[in-house]
Amino acid sequence: MRLTTVRSLLTGLAVGLIVLSLGGLALADPPPAPKVSTFAPAEDLENQVAEYIERLEKSVKSEEEYKDSESKLAKDANTLIVISLALGLHDKDNKYKAAAPAMMKAAQELVGVKDFDSAEKGVAAVKAAAASKAGGADKLQWKKAYSLGMLMKKVPLISTKLKRYVKGKRFKSKAEDTAGFTAVLAVIGQASLVDTHEVKNPDDMEKWYKFCAEMRDSAAAINAAIRAGDKDAADDAMKKLAENCDTCHEVFHPEEDK
């Protein structure tokens, strides 16, 4: 057998193995999503929609404010995408269910703006979409429609406020806020399940699903504890959430620790 023929066969075999490997990675589907009500109450997500729209409006109050808040606006708009997705897929009726697809589209467009005028129009479009009744939520599904990187940058910002607000008397006085924060963290955990681009090794796919589900469920446990007024349970769940985040980063981003 000629050397060139052997090389061709080996090259073909290598390509085939790569395709099979990538195919296996793609075929490792995430576990079925639980009902949204089991990890993120509709009421808490509704409150967060109003909160995020208010934050977006503040970011475009003036051109100077926009320049100072440009990256924050993008992260807020990106987070609003997954909040809208969760409300559209929610098994409980809610005030934004019919508006969810339009909200998602407007928020997606807002993430990509590059100037003040476009941002101002984009925020107005998000607000208008939130009031729409366009429908189409039945076509939504848990799939990538957002930037996972931006979501991961948003997580520590939400967590910092959560830690501050669950201390002392604030545990009860800020319960509505912290319930909203934890609902958003739970939704981010669920949304992360379906974006597996961080998984470079097919053998780590199940770990990714496990970490994302644990993030979702730990945040949901904090939410339930806050709603029940049980600070000890909230503290325990917050420790589990922190441990989950640390362990996940050790596996998928060890370079950050170094």
Task: Characterise the protein shown here.
- With 258 residues, the chain is mostly helical.
- It has 2 domains: 36-139, no CATH class; 148-257, Four Helix Bundle (Hemerythrin (Met), subunit A).
- It is 73% helix and 0% strand.
- The protein contains 11 helices and no strands.
- Helix 3 (63-89) packs antiparallel against helix 4, helix 4 runs antiparallel to helix 5 and helix 8 runs antiparallel to helix 9.
- The longest helix has 27 residues, at 63-89.
- The N and C termini lie far apart (50 Å).
CATH level 3 topology of the largest domain: Four Helix Bundle (Hemerythrin (Met), subunit A)
Helix content: over 70%
What Rg is obtained from the alpha carbons, in whole angstroms? 21 Å
Largest sheet: none
Which architecture of the largest domain does the CATH hierarchy give at level 2? Up-down Bundle
Distance between the termini: 50 Å
Strand/helix succession: HHHHHHHHHHH
Global morphology:
globular
In total, how many beta strands? 0
Tally of individual domains:
2
List the uncertain runs.
Answer: 8-27
Structural class: mainly alpha
User: CATH top level of the largest domain?
Assistant: Mainly Alpha
> Mean pLDDT, as a whole number?
89
Q: Report the β-strand fraction as a percent range.
A: under 5%
How many DSSP helices?
11
Main attributes?
single chain, 258 residues, mainly alpha, Four Helix Bundle (Hemerythrin (Met), subunit A), 2 domains, 73% helix
Compile the SSE list and pairings.
Layout: H1 3-27, H2 42-59, H3 63-89, H4 100-111, H5 116-130, H6 148-165, H7 170-173, H8 175-193, H9 205-228, H10 231-252, H11 254-257
Helix pairs in contact: 2-3, 2-5, 2-8, 3-4, 3-6, 3-8, 4-5, 6-8, 8-9, 9-10
